[in-house]
Amino acid sequence: MSDVFTLTLRCPSRAGIMHAISSFLYSHGCEVIDHRQFDDPITHTLFVRTEFTSARASTGAELAAAFDYLASGLDATYEVSDHAPQRILVMVSKLGHCLNDLIFRWRAGTLGGELVAVVSNHTDLRAMAESAGLPFHHVPIAPDTKSDAESEMLRLVDEYDADLVVLARYMQILSDQTCAALRGRAINIHHSFLPGFKGAKPYHQAHERGVKYVGATAHYVTPDLDEGPIIEQEVIRIDHTHDPRRLATVGSDAEALALSRAVRWHSERRVLMNGTSTVVFS
User: Fold this and answer.
1) Which of 155, 169, 254, 264 makes the best surface tag, with the fewest CB within 10 Å?
2) pTM of the model
3) Annotated catalytic residue: which of 224, 226, 239, 253?
4) Would you tell me the crossing angle of helices 97-108 and 244-267 to the nearest 10 degrees?
């Protein structure tokens, strides 16, 4: 039975790249089953995502090692991965709608990865996590214990061998050091389009301004607060009858939708970094 692999690649644009890649795959007994590419005319960068089967007894590491010579000539950054599900550690505070949605999609087999643990600075969502069979770790945070708490969080990321950390309404600002440690493998959900209503009570601010759409933004975590590369955004139309409570309810739906899509696309290796932006082969 053939094994399925995914090649993701970005490199400077030039003629002949796709011919070189397809020739490599053919010479190694591989057959393409899905291919996406985007040639960015502004950054002059080519982005590629190719799923392929290999009838030979190869591993992702073996194929990557064989591809390395070609990648060096293309000045390419690349990854060859098998279809082992990404291991996802979720961080939460008190709001449970995003965690609940992730658990539902995980159980339904549509999340794209495997939830492995939940970490929280409160205990409110312990029952939700444990009822789903997920280990729950309470890591309280105070101003004078923030550094120790983040060290414990990173220890748990290593303990569970997590590929991705999801901040599912985790209401703490991560330090620059922790953001750097999780670069490219931590996703946050923000309660509006970015830029948007920042600070406390965003839905009260939205109500006072008479907004007509409620939105949410899923983005990678960076030291620049809520300014990381955006993966997905969701909007839901509202009107003057929506008070702050109804806005918060609609907003929760938008947050859950945007976050689950971002998690799935990242887990399926459909998101490639493009400077401060992303290329998403959804």
Assistant:
1) 155
2) 0.91
3) 226
4) 40
